[in-house]
Amino acid sequence: MSTTAKTASPFPTLGATSPFLPGRNATHDRHVELDQIRTGEMGSVHSWELVTAVDGPGTRLTFFLAGCGLRCQYCHNPDTWQKRNGTLMTIDEVMKRVLRYKAVFKATGGGVTLSGGEPMMQAAFVRQIFRACKENGIHTALDTCGFLGVRATDDILDDLDLCLLDVKSGIPETYKIVTTRELEPTLVFGRRLAARGTRTWVRFVLVPGLTDAVENVEAVAEYAASISSVVERVEVLPFHQMGRDKWHELGLHYQLEDAKPPSYELLERVRGQFRDRGLTVY
Ligand code: SF4
Question: Higher confidence at residue 33 or residue 177?
Fold first, then answer.
């Protein structure tokens, strides 16, 4: 999940004729593409942007990979949910773009962040991108909800410098209402990060009337504290309505039509709950 609303990349969509394999017939091209997708040499990218002070330290090139199995009520980017709505990019194309900013990453302590959608929907692609980044001395971050943490092989985690772990609620029933999915895989993944010593930032989206119950926040705080050996910070992200138009454009039922951003007092209460556990909070 990202914290900002995205615009689509200028590349053709997955359904379009591949521009990368000219001079071959369509069936052959599709076979080659499928093979490249399977091995992670090619993947579906919704968009990318150069950002500073979000999605990890320094200036970052964030790629929003297409595809997500959750359906969070507050999703800012429902247009990233379907893999077929992304555009195919090869590793070489991704890295060509990345390497343009190598000096900027070095000067700012930044790097590459893979976000989405849910990047682990394309685990093989993530693995290839992170490997190529590490070969080039570039810092890597993964913005994930953790639901598909079982797909994160040790290879991937070996090449991961920072995990932005979105813990969308601490009470399983609330998590299911918020995301339509189960909480447990996220908790298991976070514990695995802790066991490996992978630096982690826990992120929690605060939505009045949905995620703000004291006991729900308390459960997230307790969990974050239980893996505090790797949690460098907790980011409490205030809900906003910047994604609403996308839900409308896609003809999706948006349940948070009347939800308001949290008040300053509510934000401080929630941040205080994390601070009380000895966590560093932003
Ligand atoms: S995990 Fe939730 S917020 Fe993130 S892209 Fe999927 S539905 Fe949207």
Answer: 177
Residue 52 to residues 9, 22, 61, 107, 113: CA-CA distances in angstroms? 19, 37, 9, 12, 11
Q: Could you give the CA distance from residue 36 to residue 40 in angstroms, rounded to a whole number? A: 6
Ligand 1 site, CB within 6 A: 1, 68, 70-72, 75, 77, 80, 116-118, 145
pTM above the 0.85 mark?
Answer: yes
C-alpha angle with apex 63: 9 to 52, nearest 5 degrees? Answer: 110
How far are the Cα atoms of 40, 191, 247 from residue 254, in angstroms, in the given order? 33, 33, 6
Nearest to 66 by CA among 42, 34, 44: 44
Ligand 1 atom, smallest distance to 68 CA: 6
Residue of the CA atom closest to atom 3 of ligand 1: 75
Protein residue whose Cα sits closest to atom 2 of ligand 1? 72
Nearest atom (ligand 1) to Cα of 117: 5
Residue 11: count other Cβ atoms within 10 Å of its Cβ: 16
Q: In this predicted model, what pLDDT tens digit does every residue of 215-234 receive, in sequence order?
A: 999 999 999 999 999 999 99
Domain range 26-275, its CATH number among 3.20.20.70, 3.90.550.10, 3.30.70.790, 2.30.30.40: 3.20.20.70
Minimum CA distance residue for ligand 1 atom 4: 1
- Helices (runs of H) and strands (runs of E) counted in the chain: 10, 8
